[in-house]
Design a protein that fits this description.
The complex is a heterodimer. Chain A is an alpha/beta fold. Chain A is about 70% helix and about 10% strand. The longest helix of chain A has about 40 residues. Chain A is elongated and about 110 Å long. In chain B, α3 packs across α4 and α8 crosses α9. Chain B is about 40% helix and about 25% strand. The chains are: A alpha/beta, B alpha/beta. At the A-B interface, α2, α3, α4 and α13 of A face α3, α4 and α6 of B.
Chain lengths: ~375, ~250
């Protein structure tokens, strides 16, 4: 018994009458800070024994807001549950006004914030199928509008926003140079180091040079560069267009008579297609330099031997192939980044999803395109 | 009405760098329990002043005190205490897009009170009912109109019944009926809970309906050009711009 009494808050003064009625005087503030304690106190009060009627004396209440009226509501509903009387007394004018603002007479405590019903498995499957079909259709139509815009830019070169294109070139290409350079330098060193462990056993140290050159120029250079660009620029394209979409800027462009694809996508597309092959060239050079560092300092090759070996094995075809590949990757990155941006509906979280999706889709497309190139190369020679 | 100042602004110089001083050497008080309106033409620094009052931007010089604490010089803990005393209704609602209205309003209630979950639901329902959004508890902000988002933002601002409520353009974008209802709600809350209201607006009808006292800013003097009761200012102000503003006349 003592324990239960303990749970009554100090602001409650309980007076149980002999006829079974109960007078509860509440003192002080009835606000957000105290409401939790008071509601638990009210429950404890009823656990101690149910009164036949309850009168709440509000004479000493200095402040009451909707949290306070929630406490009264709790008490009233408890009494209604046992068909007992519930009365308020000594409520000041202020308190009465507050209670009427919060519609205390009509309010119910047992509100159910009914969650929206979750669709069943078939509905969700159907919904996902339709969504994917829509996505696919949009992708194809977006390819179409990008191609049209490209044709338009070729026919009317003046319509291209040159400043914007140059700025995007700087952001996509020049600003990426340090990270692309560092990563390919390290990659070249790693390749040279790992292969040298094996080749040393056969005294074939010198072939490290050709291995690094061929692996980097044919495969890793374009792919690594594309992956870095997808992470840096593909995501930023999606976020930029997505945010513009959320803030109705894309709608504004459209109603001003600009084609959003031509206006927003073309500068990014052209910047990417021009800059990514250049970045790839730098990646190739840096990785060969990385390989040479290992060759000279760990394998005791002379720089000139390393370089002549590299040049002997590299064909012009490899280099051109590498540029073509990275140009295609660049187009894919810009295309999917802008596409995901345009698909944004809603708010901040949709922009986040679009950014993620842009990077993941680009990575997938890069690898897919690279394998197609590999097959073509095998048959083409 | 109590006359002690709950917000004190002293010699506030506000702006964004030396070249972009918006307000110069501004001082005024907001008294406890009053509805205080900051008004002025576009670009006079109303919103900048509001951002200084709530501590989003530190002043270039001068001080702002809320309930006795200087908000730009107090420590982190005091600042958190101040934040609990104020609620802000942003111009566009500023609801969290990934949460339903109920979750938006419930966020501060769940975080800062120890109410049992059922009571939290009841409070959320009451709060949304106050701004006439009953039945929209499970809607996402993107699924309702701009005016509704604004009202939901107000419900969230007053979730914990703060001592001071700040409004940034409360009636912009609302239809006249909703706007009048909002005015009534502001008056009701002010009378019953004694909430101090600081409102930035230039909606004349709303100013005359709710304001106890106004200050009027002007970009030419970078400060206050008028202070007092709006109806008095309309009739008796000697300042040409103040007269134009209150009587809705174009620049001659």
């Amino acid at each position: 018994m003592k324990n239960r009494k303990h749970t009554l808050p100090s602001s409650f003064e309980v007076d149980r009458r002999d006829d079974g009625s109960l007078v509860l005087a509440i003192r002080g503030r009835m606000d957000a800070d105290r409401a939790g304690e008071m509601i638990r106190g009210a429950r404890a009060l009823f656990a101690q024994g149910t009164p036949s009627s309850l009168t709440v004396d509000l004479g000493e209440v200095s402040y009451l807001d909707d949290f306070g009226s929630l406490v009264l509501l709790e008490l009233r509903e408890e009494m209604e549950g046992i068909k007992g009387g519930f009365y308020l007394r000594n409520a000041s004018e202020n308190v009465q006004r507050t209670l009427s603002v919060f519609q205390f007479d009509k309010a119910r405590k047992d509100v159910v914030l009914g969650k929206k019903p979750k669709p069943n498995v078939f509905e969700r499957l159907g919904g996902a199928t339709l969504a994917n079909a829509d996505d696919l259709r949009y992708m194809v139509s977006f390819i179409g509008s990008v191609c049209l815009a490209l044709v338009h830019v070729v026919l009317h070169p003046r319509s291209l926003r040159k400043e914007e294109t140059l700025l995007t070139m700087q952001k996509t290409g020049f600003d990426a140079l340090p990270i692309v350079g560092l990563i390919s330098l390290l990659l070249g060193m790693i390749l040279a180091f790992m292969s040298s462990v094996q080749l040393k056993q056969f005294g074939a140290d010198i072939y490290v040079a050709s291995l690094v050159a061929l692996a980097m120029v044919r495969e890793l250079g374009p792919v690594m560069t594309a992956i870095i660009v997808a992470g840096r620029s593909g995501s930023s394209f999606a976020a930029e267009i997505g945010t513009m979409k959320v803030s109705e800027e894309v709608d504004a462009l459209f109603t001003m008579g600009f084609d959003p694809t031509r206006f927003l996508v073309m500068p990014k597309m052209i910047a990417a297609i021009v800059m990514v092959p250049l970045l790839t060239m730098f990646a190739d050079l840096f990785s060969i330099a990385g390989g040479m560092l290992v060759g000279v300092f760990m394998l005791d090759l002379t720089p000139s031997a390393y370089l002549s070996e590299t040049v002997r094995f590299l064909e012009l075809k490899d280099i051109v192939w590498s540029f073509v590949k990275s140009g295609v990757f660049a187009g894919l990155i810009a295309w999917i980044g802008c596409l995901r941006g345009f698909q944004v509906r809603g708010g901040a979280d949709a922009v986040g999803q679009a950014t993620t999706s842009a990077v993941v889709s680009s990575l997938f497309l890069i690898i897919l395109a690279d394998s197609i190139f590999a097959v073509i190369r095998v048959y083409w020679g | 009405m109590a006359r002690n100042a709950i917000i004190k602004v002293r010699n506030l110089t506000a702006g964004y760098g030396e070249d972009a001083v918006i307000l110069h050497d501004v001082s005024f008080d907001v008294h406890e329990g009053e509805i205080f309106v900051i008004l002025g033409g576009s670009g006079c620094g109303k919103s900048t002043l509001l951002k200084h009052l709530i501590g989003l931007i530190p002043p270039m010089s001068g001080e702002v005190t809320i309930d006795g604490d200087d908000i730009s010089r107090c420590d982190e803990e005091t600042f958190q205490q101040i934040l609990k005393k104020i609620g802000i209704s942003y111009q566009g609602g500023a609801l969290f897009g990934s949460m339903t209205l109920a979750e938006n309003v419930g966020l501060p209630i769940e975080a800062y009170t120890d109410l049992p979950p059922k009571s939290v639901a009841a409070i959320i329902k009451m709060k949304l009912g106050l701004v006439h959004l009953d039945g929209f508890e499970n809607h996402l902000p993107s699924e309702i109109s701009g005016g509704m988002q604004k009202r939901a933002g107000l419900a969230r601002a007053m979730a914990l019944n703060p001592k001071i409520l700040f409004f940034d353009e409360p009636s912009a974008g609302l239809d006249p009926v909703t706007s009048a209802e909002l005015d009534n709600l502001i008056i009701h809350l002010n009378r019953s809970l004694g909430t101090t209201m600081v409102i930035v607006t230039h909606e004349l009808a709303s100013i005359f309906a709710v304001a106890h006292r106004v200050i009027m800013l002007d970009k030419r003097v970078k400060g206050i050009i008028a202070e007092g009761d709006p109806e008095y200012l309309r009739e008796h102000s000697q300042n040409r711009f103040v007269k134009q503003f209150f009587n809705r006349r174009a620049e001659p």
